[in-house]
Amino acid sequence: MTFRTNSKSSWFRAVILAVCGVVCPALYAQGPLVEAPDAPSAAIEPAPAMVVARPTVTSFGERGEHKFFDRGNCALFVATAAFSGADFAVTRANLQSGGQELNPMVRIFGRSSAGLAVNFAGQTLGVVGVSYLFHKTGHHKMERLVSIVNIGGSAGAVGYGLAHR
Question: Dihedral of the CA atoms 153, 158, 161, 163 (nearest 10)?
Answer without folding.
Answer: -110
